[in-house]
Amino acid sequence: MKTILETVHERALELWTKEDILNESITVTAAPLSVKDAIGTPEGNDFPIQKGKEKLMEANFRGARGQAFTDHYGNYSGTLARIAELPLDDNFHRAVFVSTTNAVCSSLGLTGNTVHCRDKGPAECAKGVFRYIDERYGKCRVTIIGFQPALAQAVNAETDVRLVDLDPDNIGQTKRGVLVEGGETSADAIDWADLLLVTGTTLANGTIDMFLTGKPVLFYGTTIAGAAALMGFDRYCPQSS
Fold it and tell me: pLDDT tens digits for 15-26?
């Protein structure tokens, strides 16, 4: 059975072939995106990118930008055909492919909101998240996968929440009013929840499949923008551009 990432790759390659753009070049960069470049000065100082745990890689295709969070970053340039041939066997290669997919889908008008919000954006995003959940999924218990401080605080203020994160500095700590659990509790936390609120970074780090169990899933963030369009996933990311 194909993984989600393999299916996204297959659909992206079909799209790139159909659009006859495989020989066009794309540039993927990480170094220029400092914390301030990436997210400005949001409220709070506990976002993963501020702690140096992750960086945003950014792809540029025909002037359209697409991003992906990753903990294994660097620069890359080549044709879409070369990127399609990359083995998706580590976080760097996956981040190159995912950010590229986001940029190309943006350029082709298949998705928007592929560039991370800045400054007050995360706080504004959080203000609407529970309303979005309530309107589409009703009253439900939510397990959040990945620590996004503003979203965790906002959802916890309205309903029962569990939060799973892989950062050892967070695990066992109460962050924004929510106890952060480690990855070993994932199965139990998934079973407990009515809805999973999952960071799109799971696509780039190769863990996404474990969260698609048949329960409702709402992805958040820019990393999964292109894949959400290609796969029909529900995504919440209203403040990105």
Answer: 999 999 999 999
Structure tokens at 103: 């940029």
**pLDDT at residue number 37:** 54
3 state SS for the chain: CCCHHHHHHHHHHHHHHHCCCCCCEEEEECCCCCHHHHHCCCCCCCCHHHHCCCEEEEEEECCEEEEEEECCCCCEEEEHHHHHCCCCCCHHHHHHHHHHHHHHHHHCCCCCCCCCCCCCHHHHHHHHHHHHHHHHHCCCCEEEECCCHHHHHHHHCCCCEEEECCCCCCCCCEECCEEEECHHHHHHHHHHCCEEEEECHHHHHCCHHHHCCCCCEEEECCCCHHHHHHHCCCEECCCCC
Residue 34 tokens read as 């400092």
Using pLDDT thresholds of 50, 70 and 90, give the confidence band for residue 74.
confident
Under a CB-based contact definition with an 8 Å cutoff, are residues 150 and 44 in contact? yes
Mean pLDDT of 161-178: 93
Q: What is the pLDDT of residues 47-64, one digit of tens each?
A: 343 334 568 899 999 999
Q: How many CB atoms lie under 10 A from the CB of residue 86?
A: 17
